[in-house]
Amino acid sequence: MDRPEIILAPGPTPIPPEVLLAQGSPLVYHRGPGFGNLMRDVTGRLKQLYRTSDADILLMTSSGTGGLESAVQNCFSPGDEVFVPLAGFFADRWKRLAEAYGLVVRTVEYEWGTRIRPDEVAAALAEHPVKAVLLTQSETSTGVIQPIQELAQVARDAGALVVVDVVSSLGAVPFAFDDWGVDVAVGGSQKALSASPGIAFVALGDRAWAAAEHATNPRFYFDWATYKRFADLPDPENPWTPAISVMQGLRAALELYFQDGVDVALARHRMLSRAVKDGALALGLDLFGEGLEENWTVTAIRAPEGLDADTIAARIRADFGVVLAPGQGPLKGKVFRIGHFGYFSQLDILRGLAALEMTLERLGYPVKRGAAVAAAEGVFAEPEG
Ligand SMILES: Cc1ncc(COP(=O)(O)O)c(C=O)c1O
């Protein structure tokens, strides 16, 4: 019998039945009070999640990358200089995106898996001021959560706009748009919120609006001013036909998320992350990347000596239907990644670890059966807090 695959990859994440039902229900027509309420509910919840009182939240029908592109289009003009500290695949995406729009990208390059050093960024900005710093909170390719609060501070001190990719982190790790002084933060529906792919959300504050007024990069579909004009209608709308079904699912996903509240969701992510990490360590595997204690979104695990990480990911999928993520860029074949953000339960993690144990054993790696599962259960048995 064909069964759905078990997704343990860093997005899209498994979708809860409540969300599937909501997005499978009749369409709410996208002009009128029904959709207006939907927009109000979703943006209201997202504001709470971003921890902002004054920022605007714009909802766009696209994957996360579209939201990132909208930031580059709306904030900048060709020739503007921006700073992108490079420490992984998604930081590099910022660079490529900015260059595609004619921006001049200045960088400091870090080895993948490194946490970016705010003092080094501060020194680089002092030497050469830029218009903005483009950051990635959860560097999904390495699992590292970057120190956004500190980086935003040094960027602000240097007079630069702070633009953050929170696609794979919003809802999984702490984030505070207002308190941290962030100007633009871009998230996506298919990650920690466990809705379907298809909606990008962009939070933006006054300094970003001011930049948008003067920016001359070409834009049409993602023109923030157009989104704002429609969002400000008595019944808020999208300028273009939105992914209505995904939006209906996203509202249900946010309702689920907020049933227990943000703090409980963050604590769950921390616990599941620790369970995966302790499980892998119990199998004698090495973890990749700095700041493991804080890296609650995805865990990059080194393949053991003599085994190719892509083979492990392919085999666990073929034998058990478990989808892990392969290594990207220089980590290809060296690490495989387990995503643990989203609507995962303890048992989801246990079955993933059990499948990993059996897969490694089948590939000839010596495994103490049940060791990873037992280690994860140990984490779950700890008193909360
Ligand atoms: C940190 C980060 N940024 C951006 C993206 C791109 O998002 P999308 O595939 O939704 O365009 C991803 C997707 O994995 C991501 O993890």
Summed up, what is this model?
The chain has 385 residues and is of the alpha/beta class. 43% of the residues lie in helices and 14% in strands. The chain has helices at 17-23, 33-50, 64-75, 89-100, 118-127, 148-157, 206-214, 224-231, 244-260, 262-282, 309-320, 346-362, 371-381; strands at residues 6-7, 56-61, 81-83, 104-106, 132-136, 138-139, 144-145, 161-165, 184-188, 199-204, 298-302, 322-323, 325-326, 335-339.
Structural class: alpha/beta
Question: N-to-C SSE series?
Answer: EHHEHEHEHEEEHEEEHHHHEHEEEHH
Number of helices: 13
Instruction: Give the number of DSSP strands.
Output: 14
User: What ranges have pLDDT less than 50 throughout 5 or more consecutive residues?
Assistant: none
The major beta sheet can be summarized as: 7 strands, mixed
Bound molecules: pyridoxal-5'-phosphate
What's the N-to-C terminus distance?
A: 42 Å
Biggest sheet strand order reads 2-10-9-8-5-3-4
Portion in helices = 40-55%
Mean residue pLDDT:
97
Rough outline = globular
User: What proportion of the residues form beta strands (DSSP E)?
Assistant: 5-15%
Query: What oligomeric state is this?
Result: single chain
Radius of gyration: 21 Å
What layout of secondary structure does this protein have?
Layout: E1 6-7, H1 17-23, H2 33-50, E2 56-61, H3 64-75, E3 81-83, H4 89-100, E4 104-106, H5 118-127, E5 132-136, E6 138-139, E7 144-145, H6 148-157, E8 161-165, E9 184-188, E10 199-204, H7 206-214, H8 224-231, H9 244-260, H10 262-282, E11 298-302, H11 309-320, E12 322-323, E13 325-326, E14 335-339, H12 346-362, H13 371-381
Parallel strand pairs: 1-12, 3-4, 3-5, 5-8, 8-9
Antiparallel strand pairs: 2-10, 6-7, 9-10, 11-14, 13-14
Bound molecules: pyridoxal-5'-phosphate.
